[in-house]
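Example record

One chain of 146 residues, shown exactly as stored in the release files.
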Amino acid sequence: MPSDPGFRTPAAGVEFAHNSERQFALLLDFYDVEWQYEPDSFPIEFDENGEPTKFFSPDFYLPEEHCYIEITTMNQKLVTRKNAKLRKLAEHHPGVECRILYLRDYLHLVLKYGLDDPEHLEEAVPPTRVPGEPRLVTLTDRGSTP
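Predicted structure tokens for this chain:
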């Protein structure tokens, strides 16, 4: 990122719903990844006449990847609802690619890239391992014999 104190990233001009979205946008800006914030709403539920009754607006669209990103740092009950929305999106809009970034994924980004700790995650359990290459462990490595 430029060191010019007057420099503003694209994220600086957006009002995000959650701090996690702001941090994700800053990370995308740092790596010069083009993004759009909640640019589209997709109908995912319909009444008996086929009229849309419920819409889903993914958090980010990455034009170069032709992919939407939904970030969720919520409790499991709300994550289950969000997963249901993504299933409905895939059912009604099979050509739309949308990936979800879960709490564990978000915490890995916070840890790996030194992002600010979000205030609403103070009690969240940190990731069990630092992101990186997986390490294979055999039973003999732990003192057991097969």
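Notes: Residues 76-92 form the longest helix (17 residues).
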